[in-house]
Specification:
- With 301 residues, the chain is of the alpha/beta class.
- The protein contains 11 helices and 10 strands.
- It has helices at 17-20, 23-36, 51-54, 64-74, 92-105, 120-125, 133-149, 184-193, 217-234, 256-269, 283-297; strands at residues 4-8, 40-43, 79-85, 110-114, 153-156, 161-165, 177-180, 196-198, 241-242, 273-276.
- It has an 8-stranded parallel beta sheet with strand order 9-8-7-4-3-2-1-10. The chain has a two-stranded antiparallel sheet with strand order 5-6.
- Helix 8 links the parallel strand 7 and strand 8.
- Helix 9 packs parallel to helix 10.
- The radius of gyration is 19 Å and the shape is globular.
- It starts with a strand and ends with a helix.
């Protein structure tokens, strides 16, 4: 089994927008990622971040499809990953239009990482029912599947109804859907509806993120084993990508040998994608650290 890596585009670094939140910054980092052998670049999604959350460790985010479109325009092969896109924040047809547009314009390089979400104040600010977020995600997945199939979308949703919406052009390749979350419900949704599952490291904030604890490799291995057992139970035979945000497990404070050991164990557990977010005082340092990581852990492109 091989492991692919995705490099974060640090557009949340709004304390120094000239270094991180410009078209040139996105282009420089995306091009460096492609050249170094990263398989994808990724961004996250927070259209209405709450000030209390921001003041206690939260972060800003550009619109994921706008940010990734700039990365797409500056590159040719690197994949474009939403890690993660909260589908419930938007009308499902607006979400489908953004996905269709970027998939067409990037020549089929989009990967949709999505999840139900956990920030109750952000849902409230956007006028979305937080308690219904799982059903809203399912609704968005239903609409997306119909819209990208070329069918006319006739759908009665929780807050909308359409007798027939037609999206054109249809992407030649459909973007894979990776569904995030650590709960059993999230795993079941990923295994039954997606091409991948995106668990994440809850180290230090499992309660705040409203999901099951996965903060050790033992817990990750147990969760993957459960996902595989559920796949067997429902008769799934297609391989399941697993994209794990390892966080502190691969922090720069760890030795090279320790990080190699972690990566080997992730591969053995079945992880197929690993997002990387190197720190740096400026754009050049982020790129330098991303290149150093690639030289040590990623095979030459």
């Amino acid at each position: 089994m091989t492991l692919s890596f995705s490099l974060e585009l640090p557009t949340h670094r709004v304390e120094d927008p000239a270094e991180f939140v410009t078209a040139g910054a996105i282009a420089d980092i995306a091009q460096a990622a492609e050249y170094a052998g990263y398989a994808a670049v990724h961004v996250t999604d927070h259209p209405a971040p709450d000030t209390k959350w921001l003041d206690h460790g939260g972060h800003h985010a550009l619109d994921p499809f706008v940010a990734l479109s700039f990365a797409a325009a500056a590159t040719t092969t690197v994949k474009l990953l939403t890690n993660v896109y909260i589908a419930a924040y938007r009308n499902p047809l607006l979400g489908a239009k953004s996905i269709q547009s970027l998939q067409v314009l990037s020549d089929g390089r989009l990967i949709i990482g999505t999840a139900a979400g956990y920030l109750k104040p952000e849902f409230r600010s956007l006028g979305v029912d937080f308690d219904n977020r799982g059903a809203l995600l399912d609704e968005a997945l239903d609409v997306l599947a119909q819209a990208l199939s070329g069918e006319d979308v006739a759908y009665t949703g929780s807050t909308f109804q359409t007798r027939g919406v037609r999206l054109r052009p249809i992407p030649e390749v459909l973007p894979p859907i990776w569904i995030g979350g650590n709960s059993k419900r999230a795993v079941r949704r990923a295994v039954s509806r997606g091409q991948g599952w995106a668990p994440f490291n809850t180290f230090g904030y499992a309660t705040a993120s409203r999901t099951a604890e996965i903060s050790t490799l033992d817990e990750l291995e147990a969760a993957i084993a459960w996902a595989r057992s559920y796949a067997s139970e429902i008769g799934r035979i297609e391989p399941l990508d697993i994209c794990f945000s390892a966080g502190n497990m691969l922090h720069d404070s760890k030795s090279t040998d320790e990080r190699h050991a972690v990566i080997e164990r992730l591969i053995s557990a079945g992880v197929t994608w690993l997002p990387i977010a190197p720190e740096g005082r400026d754009r050049s340092e982020v790129i330098e650290r991303a290149q150093a990581f690639a030289k040590e852990f990623i095979a030459s492109p």
